[in-house]
Amino acid sequence: MNKTEYLDTLRKKLDGLPREDVLHAVSYYAEMIDDRIEDGMDEREAVADIVSPEVAAAETLRAIPLHKLFIARVKPKRALRAWEILFLVLGSPIWLSLLLAAVAVVLGVYAVLWSLILCLYAVELSLMAAGVAGAFLFVFYLADQSLPAALFVLGTGLVSAGLVFPMHVASAKATKGMVWFSKRLFLGMKSFFVRKRG
User: Fold this and answer.
1) pTM attached to this predicted model
2) 160-198 pLDDT, tens per residue?
3) Is-contact 22 9, C-beta < 8 A?
4) Where are the domains of the chain?
5) CA–CA distance, 91 with 196 (Å, rounded to integer)
6) Cβ(153)–Cβ(137) under 8 Å?
7) Per-residue DSSP letters for 133-172?
8) Which of 43, 45, 71, 134 is most buried when burial is the number of CB atoms within 10 A of its CB?
């Protein structure tokens, strides 16, 4: 792929983004290719040395603030006609309430997922506390000369302490997965606001 093909592909991938962001991204990657050519690479090697147009488009989309994409999406390309304004105003009790309900449901599900992760950490903390309490109560029951009770609480404390590490691994993986999901969700929201033309 040569420089022109690369930049044309990038422009197509960025179609729908605000014009100034497309121009900025295209000039940035064109300059990147030119720098490599100046360093002695031929044009195809320079293009192969940088990220693919798909990755470049994803990086550009990630860098644009969500509010800018939202404004570009909802800003009308022409003046609204009187009947369109009337339709928007009269229909607002329906479409606005449905939109708010959808946003509330999505935010509620998202909050529940993070709450479940917090619950995992709470269970981990409880297991740690049970391990410490088992050791403390073992000494207490042993001093009271109740060997069966002392062995029971010691065993319970050891089992609890033994479950802390697997619980920590599960909590860490769940957190990592949720962070990954959050990034993908945010990028998906940004992609939703990209207006595809033609």
Assistant:
1) 0.58
2) 999 999 999 999 999 999 999 998 888 777 777 665 443
3) no
4) 3-64, 103-192
5) 25
6) yes
7) HHHHHHHHHHHTT-HHHHHHHHHHHHHHHHHHHHHHHHHH
8) 134
